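for the writeup, i need someone to sanity check this before i put it in the appendix. the sequnce is what the collaborator sent (i think, or maybe the updated version? ugh). structure was predicted straight from it, no edits. if anything looks off just tell me and ill rerun, i have time this weekend
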Amino acid sequence: MRYYPIHLDVRDRKCLVVGGGSVGTRKVIGLLECGAKVSVISPVATEKLNEMVAAGTIILKKRPYRPSDLQGMFLVIGATDDDVLNRQIGNDAESLNLLCNIADRPEVCNFILPSIVARGDLVITVSTSGKSPALAKRLRQKLENQFGEEYNDFLQLMGAIRKKLLSQAHAPEAHKQLFNQLIDSGIVEMIRDDKKDEINSLLLKILGKGYQYEALI
């Protein structure tokens, strides 16, 4: 395996996307969803990007890329249809020790973007280390069918239970057995089927009094 797996926090960090086409637009949306401050450099831009500019969501400079555009950036994504330009962006970013992804060119990136299944705070990523995006997409589609929105609700419940246990001075090591019981209990299916009474009975059995599903999520 060549790549070091990591989930990167880009909240409030300056990120640059070079390229205003459909690929660049997708990259911008992905960064915004993670809280980044996004700038775009491109002589042309999609309607969606122009709407974001009008809404004050992104900064757009309608002109060709300049190496100086990288100054002050945390991360850059090259998403133009010009391979020579994309490679220049990669080289410029490398000289500044910036995180850089070039769309569909893993050999000139220092990180690649995996296929993603997101269910709220549950994020499942699939990577083939750039060898087969088609396989990564197929595996992502299988995972999307396997992990529904109920997993987001389950994760919120688990987080609320953990927070409450910690507030009561429970030792974190003592939580493992409780959480394993919850994971193995079938509670995810109960959440999916909206069986609140059964969920509350299960929480009472495993955790004792004071843990009501409706109050926790």
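Residues 150-167 form the longest helix (18 residues). Residues 1-113 form a domain with the Rossmann fold fold (CATH 3.40.50.720).
thx in advance!!
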